[in-house]
Design a protein that fits this description.
GO terms for molecular function: hydrolase activity. By secondary structure, the chain is mainly beta. Helix content is 4%, strand content 43%. The chain has 3 helices and 37 strands. It has helices at 11-24, 33-37, 186-189, and strands at residues 46-48, 60-64, 67-71, 80-86, 92-99, 118-125, 128-135, 139-145, 156-160, 164-171, 178-184, 194-200, 212-216, 230-234, 237-244, 251-257, 265-270, 281-287, 293-300, 306-315, 321-323, 332-334, 362-363, 380-383, 385-387, 400-403, 409-417, 425-431, 435-442, 448-455, 463-464, 469-470, 475-482, 487-493, 499-506, 516-524, 532-541. A hairpin with a 2-residue loop joins β14 and β15.
Length: 542
């Protein structure tokens, strides 16, 4: 796809798409106070990075008419391939997902937190949206749809193999050829620091050759861990924008060649310099209808995951891109020259209207029928799923999660435990390589008690974080207050006001994934109805 020849659409069609996105964003309010507070828009014509202050890992972006669409890695969470929409590159809203179940389905019936969908690329070609990604254990997949809201095709495996990651297609409008480039994960293939290119069929369903290494970064002095390629055609050159040097400490590179298969020359076009924006790593280039160039990339921030930054971009006299402030990331900058938009960010709050949960929630594995039964009233009813391993939340497929904001915040939810089975439990958790949760549990005497537990990264059994206390009505308001460094303070109200519980817990990421907020309901195995728990009024306040 050429950035110079983005498909146009008239203002009426763009408005229709936007109205449709507004209707389908979430079961909760589309622009609640938290979403406005999380907006990066400073309201004076400037913005503050990150523009997405949560774990939207490995972002890629495309423009269609006046609309911008972004997708990101979703790893082992379901639904996958989030779809975000913006009209100004600063205010974003989550409008859906392109992948309803992970494939192969049997592989993702259990949590595989760091596997699944790695570093997708989104493009618009021949009247369709296309998303390609690499699953490091299975190969390169693609899905496509005539409209951003779907229906999206079933995942199609275009190249099978281990270690194939970060796939990106190119439909070359000048030559009429189609190509694919991907990187390698050494953990699966023993290979890294190189990019492989293929000729691809025009319908994006098959590769037409065995592939060729088009960039071997072992031959580039000082470069290592080259990955995340995004390929473009611009100004008579084939361009690959790709990071190297490692996620936390690396840089963004640009490579160009007159031929897709090389040879390529390279240049570092964005690096941390004297700023506090480490990385900066992996993203996508987009050109606005006004002719401005912008680059979206991520910054690794520990337990918060990979936060998305927006950088200005221009071309120097020798034809190379210059990103940020002369190659260094900006923190505050003038917004793109686009019409002003309402303050917004992906939704967090949820009233669970009509028993449904909003688009911001994802399961930790492919869901099964009955985990969240629909009902006529408000509130999220979760089945207390029977399990033999209820004492380690990291192994449970039925945790309903959303991203932890990278800002100090207060998370609250109301819980009623209706399950009568002894040992049934439900609660609110901060979930990562280590985790902690607070909630309610049915005791052997039939009473309900407030419990607070945690699981260490190296342990497979959780421990008490505080002494249990009675919850005589079987209800509680649960709260997590997060501070600097993702340090979390838990508290609960069982009818006599909020009381703090246990010591401060420092949230931790998974290997590639930031910490998650989660709701869950579990029960020990046994006969009879396991029962359920009802969650109401989920709020995040910043």
């Amino acid at each position: 796809m050429s950035a110079d020849r983005t498909e146009s659409a008239d203002r009426t069609e763009s408005a229709d798409r936007r109205e449709s996105a507004d209707r389908t964003e979430s079961a909760g309010p589309p622009r609640d106070a938290t979403s406005q507070a999380l907006s990066a828009d400073l309201g004076d014509g400037t913005y503050l990075n990150p523009v997405l202050a949560a774990d939207w890992s490995d972002p890629d972006v495309v423009r269609v008419g006046e609309d911008f669409y972004l997708t990101a890695s979703s790893f082992g969470r379901v639904p996958g391939l989030p779809l975000l929409h913006s009209r100004d590159l600063v205010n974003w809203r989550l409008i859906g997902h392109a992948l309803q179940r992970l494939h192969p389905a049997a592989e993702f019936d259990r949590p595989r937190h760091d596997c699944g969908v790695w570093a997708p690329s989104i493009r618009h070609h021949d009247g369709r949206f296309w998303i390609f990604w690499g699953d490091p254990d299975h190969g390169v997949f693609q899905v496509n749809a005539p409209d951003i809201h779907g229906p999206w095709s079933e995942p199609h495996l275009i190249k099978a193999g281990k270690g194939l990651i970060d796939a990106c297609p190119l439909w070359d409008e000048e030559s009429g050829e189609a190509y694919l480039v991907h990187a390698w994960a050494r953990s699966r293939s023993g290979v890294k620091n190189r990019l492989t290119g293929h000729r691809m069929s025009a319908d994006g369903r098959e590769l037409l050759d065995e592939g060729k290494v088009i960039v071997d970064a072992d031959r580039i002095p000082g470069w290592f861990t080259l990955e995340g390629p995004k390929v473009y055609r611009h100004d008579g050159w084939y361009w690959i924008l790709a990071p190297a040097g490692g996620v936390e400490t690396g840089w963004q590179g640009a490579l160009r060649s007159r031929c897709f298969f090389g040879p390529y020359e390279e240049r570092i076009v964005l690096e941390q310099g004297d700023t506090d924006i480490n990385g900066p790593h992996q993203g996508g280039w987009v050109r606005t209808s006004a002719g401005e160039d912008w680059f979206l990339h991520f910054q690794q921030r520990g337990a918060y995951g990979r936060l998305v930054h927006l950088q200005p971009m221009h071309w120097d006299t020798s034809g190379w891109p210059v990103i940020g402030d002369d190659g260094a990331p900006v923190r505050v900058h003038k917004k793109p020259d686009l019409p002003r938009e309402p303050l917004s960010a992906p939704a967090t709050d949820d009233d669970f209207t009509g028993g449904r949960f909003g688009r911001q929630w994802q399961w930790t594995a492919n869901p099964r029928d009955g985990w969240a039964p629909r009902h006529s009233g408000d509130g999220l009813r979760l089945l207390c799923v029977p399990t033999a391993d209820a004492h380690d939340l990291r192994r449970q497929p039925n945790i309903l999660t959303q991203r932890l904001p990278a800002l100090p915040c207060t998370v609250e939810v109301e819980l009623e435990l209706a399950a009568q089975r002894p040992g049934a439990r439900a609660g609110l958790t901060v979930l990562g390589d280590a985790y902690s949760w607070i909630g309610l549990e049915r005791g052997p005497d039939g009473g309900v008690r407030l419990v607070h537990r945690f699981g260490e990264a190296v342990a497979d059994q959780e421990r008490d974080a505080a002494r249990d206390r009675p919850a005589p009505d079987g209800r509680a308001r649960l709260r997590i207050e997060t501070g600097a460094g993702a340090r979390c303070r838990f508290s609960a109200d069982t009818g006599d006001g909020f009381t703090r519980s246990g010591p401060v817990f420092a949230a931790t990421p998974w290997r590639w994934v930031g910490a998650l907020l989660g709701l869950f309901a579990l029960a020990p195995e046994g006969g009879g109805d396991p029962g359920s728990a009802l969650f109401t009024r989920f709020r995040i306040t910043v």
